[in-house]
TrEMBL record, chain A:
Residues of the MHD domain: 178-426
Keyword terms: Membrane, Protein transport, Transport
UniProt GO BP: endocytosis; intracellular protein transport
Cellular component GO terms held in the UniProt record: clathrin adaptor complex; cytoplasmic vesicle; endomembrane system
Subcellular localization(s) per the UniProt record: Endomembrane system
Signal peptide span: none
The name this protein goes by in its record: MHD domain-containing protein
Protein family: Belongs to the adaptor complexes medium subunit family.
The organism's taxonomic lineage, starting at the top: Eukaryota, Viridiplantae, Streptophyta, Embryophyta, Tracheophyta
One Pfam family recorded for the sequence: Adap_comp_sub
InterPro entries on file: Adaptor_comp_med_subunit (IPR050431), AP2_Mu_C_sf (IPR036168), Clathrin_mu (IPR001392), Clathrin_mu_CS (IPR018240), Longin-like_dom_sf (IPR011012), MHD (IPR028565)
From TrEMBL, chain B:
Upper lineage: Eukaryota, Viridiplantae, Streptophyta, Embryophyta, Tracheophyta
Main location: membrane
Organism annotation: Citrus sinensis (Sweet orange)
Domain Beta-adaptin appendage C-terminal subdomain per the UniProt entry, residue ranges: 719-836
Family assignment from sequence similarity: Belongs to the adaptor complexes large subunit family.
Protein name: Beta-adaptin-like protein
One CC-aspect GO term: endomembrane system
Keywords, in A-Z order: Membrane, Protein transport, Transport
Region (Disordered): 1-26
Pfam families noted in UniProt: Adaptin_N, B2-adapt-app_C
Amino acid sequence: MLQCIFLLADNGAVILEKQLTGHRVDRSICDWFWDHVISQGDSFKSMPVIASPTHYIFQIVRAGITFLACTQVEMPPLMGIEFLCRVADILSDYLGELNEDLIKDNFVIVYELLDEMIDNGFPLTTEPNILREMIAPPNIVSKMLSVVTGNSSNVSDILPGATASCVPWRPTDVKYANNEVYVDLVEEMDAIINSTKQFSLLHARFRDGVLVKCEIYGEVQVNCLLSGLPDLTLSFANPSILHDVRFHPCVRFRPWESHQILSFVPPDGQFKLMSYRVKKLKSTPIYVKPQLTSDAGTCRISVMVGIRNDPGKTIDSIILQFQLPPCILSADLTSNHGTVNVLSNKICTWSIGRIPKDKAPSLSGTMVLETGLETLRVFPTFQVEFRIMGVALSGLQIDKLDLQNVPNRLYKGFRAVTRAGEYEVRS
Amino acid sequence: MAPPAQAHRSPSPSQPSGKGEVSDLKSQLRQLAGSRAPGIDDSKRELFKKVISYMTIGIDVSAVFGEMVMCSATSDIVLKKMCYLYVGNYAKVNPDLALLTINFLQRDCKDEDPMIRGLALRSLCSLRVANLVEYLVGPLGLGLKDNNSYVRTVAVIGVLKLYHISAPTCIDADFPPTLKHLMLNDPDPQVVANCLSALQEIWSLEASTSEEASREREALISKPVIYYLLNRIKEFSEWAQCLVLELVAKYVPLDSNEIFDIMNLLEDRLQHANGAVVLSTIKVFLHLTLSMTDVHQQVYERIKAPLLTLVSSGSPEQSYAVLSHLHILVMRAPFIFASDYKHFYCQYNEPSYVKKLKLEMLTAVANESNTYEIVTELCEYAANVDIPIARESIRAVGKIALQQYDVNAIVDRLLQFLEMEKDYVTAEALVLVKDLLRKYPQWSHDCIAVVGSISSQNVQEPKAKAALIWMLGEYSQDMQDAPYILESLTENWEEEPSAEVRLHLLTAVMKCFFKRPPETQKVLGAALAAGLADFHQDVHDRALFYHRLLQYNVSVAERVVNPPKQAVSVFADTQSSEIKDRIFDEFNSLSVVYQKPSYMFTDKDYRGPFEFSDELGNLSIAAESADNVVPAQGVEANDKDLLLSTSEKEEIRGATFNVSGYSAPLYDSSAASVQSELAIISSTSAGSAPSSSLAIDDLLGLGLSAAPAPEPASVPPSLKLNSKAILDPGTFQQKWRQLPISLSQEFSLSPEGVAALTTPQALLWHMQGHSIHCIASGGHSPNFKFFFFAQKAEESSNFLVECIINTSSAKAQVKIKADDQSTSQAFSDVFQSALSKFSV
């Protein structure tokens, strides 16, 4: 049970405070917390659950805003963290994005939301659809109007009907002129690529990818713009490849158990229907071959990037990022394609974009080591980003999407995209 | 701690200085209060916003309380909400003014709009002013009967708030029975969930004073209520599901059919999108099956995938919390996760606290089949930019080496680390090589060759330096330069800042002296002199001790300093398994994240139900902490009686080795070193003076058992047992399941034996002296239960024993299982004779 929620700006100042129980949590806890964060270097390095001298603190950071919750009693830790994540999601949903000024401009809405989301320290309603019915989000039109006419009301005149609904995630009386439903497969490929170690006399490390681990984490995202109370069924051509699945509460369990069919009454609008994992993939779409040779205080680097397995669609937004080891004094890097940037904190970014047809992109250059250091002993890890539209690399395919009581005009759309998640190539 | 200073830190340029603005606001509000002009609500809204924003940034605007209340007569819901917010914030400090708000709040409680009714009721209950409770009862009673579920939801929590302000008022108004009725009958699941949480809290707080309340609290975890809630579980919101699942975890089913019914019903909860629900479900599963070993294993298999998915999806914060839970499961059942080791590979971008957990798990799941890959992966991290992680991973490689039997490849890797020319890598690797040598002396030649080439100048860290010095002393006969390196180190005695290093240096010089006297004599003199002059008490004492020992008798000194050593089989675990068990009992709680049981970190003030009864609100937690109080207070007494399983036993063993190989103490634990010091002293007295202390006697006995002939008289010639028998708990369990009972007997215990059996440990030590080792023990007086094992001296034939001792009847029931059935009678005789000698 949470006792208090604070929102902190990126300088540690309290933007907002919401006391939840009769036990009042003093603001000084935020000072303690901020000192703690500073002593840890930066907030990403401090743990999500911290024991302060007086309270246990949950913290998450979103877009520079720290969401802080305090408690003095034992409770399930994920409940605290999940709830804070939910608060952050809903706030950014309501406000369009998250930043200090937006929260300050709309803090009445934020208070209203918190009021409905948690009572006496126990989470209540966190379904965006229900909240939307209780508290209307500030939209641009009403903001414009309020500027023009000086008149605004962000409160819907409708009473909270959905709280009593048998399908709590769906508002009652949804009406659309055009009925549309879009299903997106969004996949992220997590991979670690190593090489067999080969030490040459010159301390060169030649590396060709050995796939240490390759997995796909995927989500089925649905944008549902359907009238009434639609009942949908979605089936896959090859559900057996899914290793583990998690569902939105709307999904009925039995049809999935018996036939691997997703049967559900969807929430209105955009939502995550399910997430899944596909294990042990055998190949990656692109290769990255780094080669580092160091001798007598200088290190030659060369990195080649190319297509290993053509997925059939364009691979774009390829970006390679790596942190130069601290022992490197200066680096002179050039590429035959794309742009190379070295920031002051020694993070090097190579934006490739698409791989050209006629040549393989490569990056090469020399790096000067610290004086006294002959050879490089710490090797950078290359983090790769890419995006492939139109393909789900796991191979998952949607078979069909059916709708009971088909309305007159219905449009069904399917898309797929694969991105690199945690995709690392170790040199 | 500094008082809140945010007001000064706020970057806003329009920062009001305080007083002036507040009085300005006050007059503006006053003007608006009476006005009924059109558009007045918008100007009010602007002003209210300003007031609230001042309040938010920490400026005291309680001065405008009266004006705010005057302005609150409005139909605008946003204005109302802002007003409620303001009133809620300041009512507690202005109880007199709060009275002013009662009127309009009560009126709003009868509003047509259910939203306003609910909001007003919530604000009314949030005033938390003790002398206003009389005004709460009426609206709450109406609210509970309201036909809108939103109002009922608010009213139920309102009852709980009322209880915290004034418990008697709440009880007198008969609210708890009303809530119970609502809980079992209301169509709205959120109302039911709120009733449940309110009742849990109220009844567990009442339970200590009222019989009825404690009965009611028990009734909450009775079959009808649990089944009623479980049947509706899909209707509940995700948070309410957590609440119900927490309750179900406390329910004790009658038979296994019930267990399976519940698990089948809840299985789909493992696929819920909310991690909190998944973890609560896992907790239920684990608790339900604790007594069913096979099913428990299956549960692990079943929950593996959802947990691993939870870790890889979601935000880093969620991942961390899940990972902490995964960590505890992996530590309990590493073999189940052995094939999933790749999930514990560290990603470059992960924060170091996550990497640390993952390294520990990688270490735990390492087995024969995956060691090679895991060690390869760990070696990648050794070249990592993140130095603490690089260190951790080298330590992990060492730990794996110490766990495994086939360590050839690992030793090579470690020696490669030594050649990496990075000071921290060298330092960590040195410490590990030392530990490895203690366990696998057969590798000394390979290691010494590499270690010898390391210049002591390049090693600065005390732990590493101590390790290097230990190796110099221990293997001085194999290292040409050992006496001379020690000499140069002794010359720099004054510059050596670490007492630990100086202690090791003293011992190493002593050892070296016994092996190569002519070369070392000079150094020994210098070292003893320097030690005697040392300002550090321990160093001084050890030097003095060595000095006198040498004066007394050189050969005795050699026996003390350089006894024949036996390889260390298992090093002590840093965290006892008992604590791990306790954390496991608190699965899905903060304990897991902190890796400490709650009694170790929860403030005493917040453990008991009464300390926070008037402060805190939530229910499930209060109920839980009420339950926690008992074990927390009983800890002292229970500690000795709780299941004493392997790692604890290993600790005992480890301590023993400290006696024989004390020159490289692994333990910072002062108790262990005290014991070893004691043992040294008693062994110097050559065992002639019988020690009065049982502990010393036992330690001494153990120390002697390391000597070649372990009390041969106690072992009948028919059967010789291996005094260094090793069996890991997993194998034991497996064998115990597989083998038939070959003998089942009942022995009598001598009265002295019964008297000495105050704690199970005493018997463990005794039996170990007879080459019968304990793998697990537990129980409370008068009933103790032990599992022993022994191995034949020549062949690896095992005997497994279950021994139940009842101290009141002085009887021991013994079940023996054996690999070789024909020898079980002989072993039984050995066992009986050993048992009969206990404390004689």
